Amino acid sequence: MNPEDREAYRHRYRKRLDQYGHDPRTLGWASGKQGERFKALTSFCDLQSLASVLDVGCGFGDLYPFLLEHGFKGTYTGVDFIEDLIEVGRAAYPGAEFTVADFSEFQAGQTFDLVLASGIFNARLEGEAHWDYVTRTLGKMFSCCKVAVAVDFLTSYVDYEREDLYYTSPEHAFVFAKTLTRRVALNHAYLPFEFALCMFKDDRIAEHATFHPLPCGRF
Questions:
Q1: Which CATH number belongs to the domain containing residue 38 in this structure?
Q2: What number is the average pLDDT over the span 69-75?
Q3: Is 212 inside any structural domain?
Q4: Domain containing 72: what range?
Q5: What pLDDT, in 10s, does the model give residues 159-190?
Q6: pLDDT score of 208 more than 60
Q7: Tens digits of per-residue pLDDT, 135-147?
Q8: Which helix (H) or strand (E) holds 24?
Q9: What are the CA-CA distances from residue 97 to residues 44, 46, 53, 204 (Å)?
């Protein structure tokens, strides 16, 4: 993310943190919706089989207790460039690992089974083309995963739009995801104005599952 937008993010979240504290509203979410979002993002994988999760733009790391409650026993790593949020997360969740960094500059030195991001593309950028930022970030996330990448977006299918938010076309997101892998899943049913996209690392397709059309005239 460019420095101007990064500083705007810091100012926005620090102001909300002073106002709301450790609360979904600090992250720009309405209370009560976070669980539905986490459920959608993690529904693509068997959490009990995962050894590691990377949460990009983790905020407080509230995904961590949700993972534990649903059978996850691996290591959780949250990365966010807003240090104030990470400090709260470290105090609240001592069993999690946190790194203060912009994901564009993040050097993990390892890969993770599942790489997730919830809402990191929602605030419209001013200093660069937003879609370029989306595709660049998705590509890096995919390079860091061993099993899958799951991301939550604001959908372009809304009743109205705010000028400060970015609404992603599910069709455009799906088409881009297919340039990274043949196995892509999209869920547009869990909340009215959001969708979740999952890209699987292993995109092999069994030969017996491949459709072979019959020659003309044979039914």
A1: 3.40.50.150
A2: 96
A3: no
A4: 3-19+29-203
A5: 999 999 999 999 999 999 999 999 999 999 99
A6: no
A7: 999 999 999 999 9
A8: none
A9: 23, 21, 10, 32
Count how many domains the chain has: 1
207 band by pLDDT with thresholds 50, 70 and 90: low
Does a structural domain hold residue 50? yes
In the chain, beta strands by DSSP E = 52-56, 75-80, 97-100, 112-118, 145-154, 184-187, 194-200
DSSP 8-class letter at 115: E
Return all residues near 110 (Cβ < 8 A) that are at least 6 apart. 52
Contact 170, 156 (CB under 8 A): yes
Residue 156 CB coordination number (10 Å): 16
Strands (E), 11-156: 52-56, 75-80, 97-100, 112-118, 145-154
- HSE-CB at 162 with a 13 A cutoff on CA atoms is 7
